Amino acid sequence: MKEKYTAIVLAAGSGKRMHSQIQKQYMDLLGKPVLYYALRQFEDCDFIDEVILVTKKDEIAYCREQIVEPYHFQKVKSVIEGGAERYLSVYNALKTAGACDYIYIHDGARPFVSREMLQRLKEAVCTYGACVAAVPSKDTLKLADEALFAKETLKRSEVWNIQTPQVFACADILNAYEKLMQEDHAKMGITDDAMVLEKMTDRKVKLVEGSYYNIKITTPEDLDIAEIFAKKCNLQES
């Protein structure tokens, strides 16, 4: 029996750091909204069966009418309301997903996910049950004390920048989120889905080669960089 792969694409962020009234996931990138590019990769990926798009309540109609329908994203089966925090948006989507074997969770503001990356993650999640896209840090990283003095230099060979997609066995990540919902103190400091699995279970998360192109558009400078990357990657032909 064929295993089912579902993708959750998160587009409910406020985008305050963009200093724009237009949400970052809807901003123009080579004539299409940023969100388009991630959805296109999942749509065209042969083993992804279904996509759940998470957005703000008052943007659900916009996503359907301006993105999903015009670009014929047939795998987007649900456009649902997100929560006040990222982890709540993910939890809402996990409950919507229903029966599936593996879940991809991806930030809609990362337009440069590739099908090769999706395939690498598929192979890893089938082996390890949990994996994330990541790249080795290019920078030297230091821990700071409360007065902003450097107190420790991290070993760069052991430091990775974590990206999305993050991929999990569906039952495992849903179980981890359900435990999180019962422990208010655990919600503080949650920054990604792998952290939920790590805090709530004893499962380990495998790091899988991502891409330095796979940036998250967060600030105006990121959009400038994204335009350069998009042209280099020929996304205007997508």
What does this structure look like?
By secondary structure, this protein is α/β, with parallel strands linked by helices. The protein is 35% helix and 24% strand. It is built from eight helices and eleven strands. It has helices at residues 34-44, 60-68, 86-97, 115-128, 170-181, 184-187, 193-200, 220-232; strands at residues 5-11, 28-29, 32-33, 50-55, 76-81, 102-107, 130-136, 142-144, 150-153, 160-169, 206-209. The protein has a seven-stranded mixed sheet, sandwiched between helices. It has a two-stranded antiparallel sheet with strand order 2-3. Strands 8-9 form a two-stranded antiparallel ribbon. Strand 8 (142-144) and strand 9 form a beta hairpin. Helix 3 (86-97) crosses helix 5 and helix 5 crosses helix 7 (193-200). It starts with a strand and ends in a 6-residue tail after the last helix. The mean pLDDT is 92.
